[in-house]
């Protein structure tokens, strides 16, 4: 059943390291075994093999050796470690066959050096360990998905359950996603594989811990597989929903009442203004408010501040036209004690007072070019130095500017810096004049009657007086209306200029007793009729042209000829 090694001519010449074991003792070694173990042959022979086996592997080798000698089932090949004479640890793969040595059973054992292979495996395992550590540190769920929708591998939070079962490899996307989201996922997989682009979509999973929102990113891999990265965005969705509900609440409050603060308006132009106020309040971008004098530019600016995240800070209004040019710098930047005669204490400037709040700059066009350059630097984050100061101040401010002039025209005329204008006018808000929103007139009048009236009973404005108010052009806008209502409450009369008639037109000079030419009389009558029509249509020229039966260009030509603007 065996053979003697003396009868094996290849024993010494084999490329493998070979030893003969009998009763746990090394009986013979070939040249390669001597070379591998770095011992002389006489140092190996007649010594227990356990002297050279790594201590952690002795029990394993002993067990396998005894089982083989007792003819029990044992793996033919297995790895273990030997220690060389130099103390190096070398990995071997062992293969043994039974032989006879001196007429008694022994084991002919072949050693194949697998140290490099083991090191490569250890490096791979370490790499996989690091990769697993990285993946486990990532809160995202990561799955590999076949083009068919079959999940091949899965990594996710421990204990995650979807619809009552864990999403392990072998499951299918259709097991977890509702039909419409499954179709969206399959479409994303197809797009990722076809175009090698990252596809994104959101979906809900019904888990044991409740319904969770996920964001999915689909990335194409080699072949027909994709990588799905699923990020739990439930908290983000909750915050977004809370923010949306807050904004909707504010919007509903604004739309259902006709006022935001003291802003009154149900007309379409004012509804557009209210929409813009809400949009502007959601950002910290600078705002510029356009409008004629008396249209409520400061009220609108205050509403934007109060609805924004800066409501906890100060709203600092300043009329730029009221500040002398020489005091501009000290007013905006402040000054330090002793900076000039009379500076007996430190004083914060307008920019510093508005830190983390809003600075409302009315009459923006009245700031000179030099001051515009300094303000621009401060607004852009470059800070400023108070007058007499050495330490720069870096305020966090939002600018809301207002003007009744055309800033673009000021830029063209060189009275406003272009970079200053564009830095300020990120979000424009245009307020309509009162004559373009006369449907708001009753609400505005009622508001001022409540605000300015005394006693429990509000004054009543007769219909003929209301008609006069409706027909007025309101050049002073809301401010003029407030004054008119105040006078009515105080003096019980309405002071408005009477509508223009032909009698109001100055007569042309002519010789006494000389009849006037018919063309002059007709021109006067035409002018008076056009003025009455314009008053009746609240100066809506297109509507007036329609009532007069004229083309708009014809009406505009006549208005220019009569000096009517």
Descriptive key words:
single chain; 565 residues; alpha+beta; Beta-Lactamase; Rossmann fold; 5 domains; five-stranded antiparallel sheet; 19 helices; 19 strands; elongated; sequence-specific DNA binding
Structural description of this entry:
Keywords: ATP-binding, Nucleotide-binding, Transcription, Transcription regulation. One of its GO terms (molecular function) is sequence-specific DNA binding. Pfam families: AAA_lid_14, HTH_8, PAS, PAS_4, Sigma54_activat. Residues 23-72 form the PAS domain. Residues 263-490 form the Sigma-54 factor interaction domain. With 565 residues, this protein is of the alpha+beta class. It folds into five domains: 5-119, PAS domain (Beta-Lactamase, 2-Layer Sandwich); 138-232, PAS domain (Beta-Lactamase), CATH 3.30.450; 255-430, Rossmann fold, CATH 3.40.50.300; 434-491, Orthogonal Bundle (Helicase, Ruva Protein, domain 3), CATH 1.10.8; 502-561, Homeodomain-like (Arc Repressor Mutant, subunit A), CATH 1.10.10. 39% of the residues lie in helices and 20% in strands. It has helices at residues 31-37, 41-44, 58-69, 115-137, 179-195, 234-256, 268-281, 297-307, 328-333, 350-353, 369-382, 407-412, 418-424, 441-452, 463-471, 477-491, 518-536, 541-548, 552-561; strands at residues 17-22, 25-29, 77-83, 89-101, 104-113, 141-146, 151-155, 199-207, 210-220, 225-232, 259-260, 263-264, 287-290, 315-319, 334-335, 347-348, 357-362, 397-403, 427-430. The strands form five sheets. A five-stranded antiparallel beta sheet has the order 2-1-5-4-3. Helix 6 (234-256) packs antiparallel against helix 7 (268-281) and helix 7 (268-281) packs across helix 8 (297-307). It is elongated and about 160 Å long. The chain starts with 16 loop residues before the first strand and ends with a helix.
């Amino acid at each position: 059943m065996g053979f003697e090694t003396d009868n094996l001519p290849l024993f010494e010449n084999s490329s493998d390291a070979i030893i003969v074991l009998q009763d746990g003792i090394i009986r013979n070694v070939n040249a390669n075994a001597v070379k591998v173990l770095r011992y002389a042959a006489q140092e190996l022979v007649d010594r227990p093999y356990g002297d050279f086996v790594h201590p952690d592997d002795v029990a394993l080798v002993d067990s396998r050796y005894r089982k083989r000698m007792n003819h029990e089932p044992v793996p033919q090949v297995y790895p273990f470690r030997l220690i060389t004479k130099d103390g190096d640890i070398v990995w071997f793969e062992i293969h043994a066959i039974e032989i006879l040595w001196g007429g008694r059973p022994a084991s002919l054992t072949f050693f194949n050096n697998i140290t490099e292979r083991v090191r490569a495996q250890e490096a791979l395992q370490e790499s996989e360990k690091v990769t697993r550590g990285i993946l486990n540190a990532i809160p995202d769920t990561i799955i590999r998905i076949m083009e068919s929708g079959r999940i091949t591998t899965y990594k996710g939070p421990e204990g995650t359950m979807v619809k009552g079962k864990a999403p392990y490899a072998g499951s299918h996307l259709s097991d977890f996603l509702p039909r419409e989201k499954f179709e969206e996922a399959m479409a994303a997989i197809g797009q990722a594989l076809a175009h090698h682009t990252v596809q994104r979509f959101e979906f809900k999973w019904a888990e044991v811990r409740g319904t969770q929102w996920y964001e999915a990113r689909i990335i194409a891999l080699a072949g027909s597989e994709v990588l799905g990265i699923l990020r739990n965005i439930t908290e983000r969705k909750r915050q977004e929903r809370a923010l949306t509900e807050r904004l909707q609440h504010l919007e509903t409050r604004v739309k259902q009442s006709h006022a935001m603060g003291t802003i009154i308006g149900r007309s379409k132009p004012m509804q557009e203004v209210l929409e813009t106020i809400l949009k502007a309040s959601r950002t910290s971008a600078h705002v510029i408010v356009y409008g004629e004098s008396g249209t409520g530019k400061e009220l609108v600016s205050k509403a934007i501040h109060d609805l924004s995240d800066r409501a906890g800070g100060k709203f600092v209004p300043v009329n730029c036209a009221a500040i002398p040019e020489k005091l501009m710098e000290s007013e905006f930047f402040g000054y330090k004690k002793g900076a000039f005669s009379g500076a007996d204490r430190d004083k914060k400037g307008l920019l510093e007072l508005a830190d983390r709040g809003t600075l409302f700059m009315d009459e923006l066009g009245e700031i000179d070019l030099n001051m515009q350059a300094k303000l621009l630097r401060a607004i852009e984050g470059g800070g400023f130095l108070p007058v007499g100061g050495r330490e720069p101040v870096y305020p966090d401010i939002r600018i809301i500017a207002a003007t009744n002039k055309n800033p673009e025209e000021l830029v063209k005329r060189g009275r406003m810096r272009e970079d200053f204008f564009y830095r300020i006018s990120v979000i424009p808000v245009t307020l309509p004049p009162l004559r373009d929103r006369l449907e708001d007139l009753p609400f505005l009048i009622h508001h001022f009657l409540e605000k300015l009236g005394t006693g429990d009973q509000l004054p009543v404005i007769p219909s003929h007086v209301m008609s006069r108010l409706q027909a007025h052009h309101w050049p002073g806008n809301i401010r003029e209306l407030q004054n008119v209502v105040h006078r009515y409450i105080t003096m019980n009369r309405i002071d408005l200029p009477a509508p223009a008639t032909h009698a109001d037109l100055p007569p042309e000079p002519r010789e006494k007793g000389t009849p006037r030419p018919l063309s002059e009389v007709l021109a006067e009558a035409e002018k008076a009729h056009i003025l009455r029509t314009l008053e009746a249509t609240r100066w809506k020229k297109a509507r007036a042209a329609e009532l007069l039966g004229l083309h708009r260009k014809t009406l505009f030509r006549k208005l220019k000829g009569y000096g009517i603007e």
